[in-house]
From TrEMBL:
GO biological process, one term: carboxylic acid metabolic process
One Pfam family in the UniProt entry: Pyridoxal_deC
SUPFAM superfamilies tied to this protein: PLP-dependent transferases
Organism expressing this protein natively: Spirodela intermedia (Intermediate duckweed)
Gene Ontology molecular function, alphabetical: carboxy-lyase activity; pyridoxal phosphate binding
Keyword entries, A-Z: Decarboxylase, Lyase, Pyridoxal phosphate
Protein name, entry field: Uncharacterized protein
Requisite cofactors: pyridoxal 5'-phosphate
InterPro entries, per database record: Group_II_Decarboxylase, PyrdxlP-dep_de-COase, PyrdxlP-dep_Trfase, PyrdxlP-dep_Trfase_major
Length: 315
């Protein structure tokens, strides 16, 4: 049996039935791909979905509070020691934190007074909610700041603050699929994994395009792939900074090839600006984000993360 369950706290469990535990401790990488569920058919063949396995041996057990106050105080003291140990671990790990361009200069002291409240910005930030405990005024203020940075007027965009860069990619590609339900998704092999995750979630045909040594999309190979699917609209993921090499795809050339290949008015471009989308306005001789937004695009979506929270702008 395969299934899943989720609660309002965002906890998702995948139900995979009883699994015989390994005979000895092994690394997860050693069993990658050893179990799968055959679900549905794809191109006339059974489609296999790889499933995970819970191999954690160092997780903490969660127990209900004790009725005995003495036992409860002992447990609280134990939890305080667990958290203190965990904090020391975070401090040590952060000293050697390399490879991810995150802003580690956090100072949330001024916001601690807001933690007792259940703040929820559910829904469209530009539409008043019937849930009164929200921070929409701050969310829209942040969006307006990015709009000014990218030289957009208030009536020229819509957006919201996402929970992560993956959500920005999922939402941006979903918009493309809604505009072109039969479109083919094109993305370079060095695009973020969430782009290909979106293709699986939305059951889109996805074409992976090879890259140059720099990590940017190989536009000659891209055109070949386009011509193989000329009868169907194109949904293209364009990177403004790839995850590993920081490569910036040539948007001008991508648009030129789309138009030359007969896709005029039949393409949608999603720009994943998670790495450099915020930096570009401050870099000399870098392409202006405004120039990227107002090419001959039916719609363009940018996701922002890393240096601030995650911003999604739909122009």
């Amino acid at each position: 049996m395969v299934g899943s369950v989720v609660n309002d706290s965002g906890v998702l469990l995948q139900v995979i039935g009883k699994v015989k535990p390994p005979a000895e401790e092994i690394e997860p990488a050693e069993i990658a791909g050893t179990r799968s569920a055959q679900l549905g058919r794809e191109n006339g063949r059974k489609k296999e979905i790889l499933l995970g396995r819970n191999l954690h041996s160092s997780s903490f057990g969660i127990t209900e509070p004790e009725a005995d106050e003495e036992l409860t105080s002992d447990r609280e003291a134990y939890m305080a020691s667990v958290l203190a140990k965990y904090r020391r671990n975070l401090v040590e790990r952060t000293k050697h934190h390399l490879g991810y361009p995150y802003n580690l200069d956090f100072e949330y002291g001024a916001l601690s007074q807001l933690q007792p409240f259940s703040i929820n910005n559910l829904g469209d930030p530009f539409i008043e909610s019937n849930y009164g405990v929200h921070s929409r005024q701050f969310e829209v203020g942040v969006l307006d700041w990015f709009a000014r940075l990218w030289e957009l007027e208030k009536n020229e965009y819509w957006g919201y603050i996402t929970s992560c860069g993956t959500e920005g990619n999922l939402d941006g590609i979903l918009i493309g699929r809604e505009i072109f339900p039969d479109g083919v998704l094109y993305a370079s092999r060095e695009s973020h994994y969430s782009v290909f995750k979106a293709a699986r979630m939305y059951r889109m045909d996805c074409v992976k395009v090879e890259t140059l040594i720099s990590g940017e999309i190989d536009c000659s190979g891209f055109q070949v792939k386009l011509l193989e699917n000329k009868e169907r609209p194109a949904i293209v993921n364009v990177n403004i900074g790839t995850t590993v090499k920081g490569a910036v795809d040539d948007l001008d050339l991508v648009i030129k090839l789309l138009e030359e290949s007969g896709f005029e008015n039949r393409f949608y471009i999603h720009c994943d600006g998670a790495l450099f989308g915020l930096m570009m306005p401050f870099v000399k001789r870098a392409p202006k984000v405004t120039d990227l937004l107002f090419r001959s695009l039916p719609t363009l979506f940018c996701s922002r993360c890393k240096k601030t929270n995650h911003i999604s702008i739909n122009v």
